[in-house]
Specification:
The structure is a single chain. The protein is an alpha/beta fold. The two termini are 36 Å apart. It contains seven helices and eight strands. Strand 3, helix 5 and strand 4 form a beta-alpha-beta unit. Helix 2 packs parallel to helix 4.
Length: 339
Amino acid sequence: MTRVNLGGSHVPDILDTLAQLSNDEVPTPPKLARAMLDLLPNEVWSDPTLRWLDPFCKSGIFLREIAARLLLGLEDWEPDFGTRREHIFRNMLYGTSITQMTGIVSRRTLYGSRKANGEYSFVQFDDEDGNLPFVPAKHTFGKTGTAANCDICRAPRDLERGEGRENYAYSFIHRAYPTEEMEDMKFDVIVGNPPYQVGTEGHGATASTVYHHFVERAIDMAPRFVLMITPSRWFTGGKGVDAFRERMISDRRLRVLVDNPKLFDCFPGVEIKGGVSYFLWDREHDGDVEFSTRVDGVIRSTMTRDLREGDGVLIRDNRAMDIIPSNDQNLWMALGGVT
């Protein structure tokens, strides 16, 4: 696809070299974001009525890449570049950041300015957040407020360290975003790279898996599509994701699943044991999953599969599907394991 610059002038792509900020702030490389967006059907890029949401922005890469494609795809609908860009930024693209800092970075990426109402912003909003605010939230520590861990994400109580300190209570899963003002807004496509574990700097022993909460929340909102990347560890369950694995394996709306088993393949320099995988959930799909293995950015194998055929185990190697008897549980487990 031909590249379109959102502001009409050359801007070096600093997102190619943006480093990991913390355990939960791992920016998505542009090349990976583009590979994920390629899974969506072509018609989404020419529909001016769709609303897109990234509810956990870190660098703003997904919204930027979506904007670039929409600027091309909607050219016939609205030939004037300025008018087209105004519609896309104001009426189609929405998000919230996971921290104050990532909000600044994401707005700079999407709008060309950390302030959406700033002099250099591509579109002049009425306030500095535009459609991409940071929305603070609070953990819920039981009915009495004295529980040791958050009811929703299992974060330790001592992460609540007072006003102005990061508490890793992500607004999307703690129901602070979308905000009340957006209560009646219907999102058509929800995309992104959610935090994988609760922010636990200095709390390594109590790290809690959270990415599945973001996926479940997005699916429960019933958009047309959900497109996300997560660790592949959910393939074998454990660490609080057994129910999530069962839900994903049995969900016939899961249309595409791309497994990236090689360490450091998708996120250079970031160790995610077991690799990562991204998926396309399609509300209108009712059938088997197109399961692919991707190594070094190249799809090595693809097979259309019924994920329910593994007796609760998701086999990573497509080649094993034709040789493993469905009743041989030990072999299923051996080939389905994630290390």
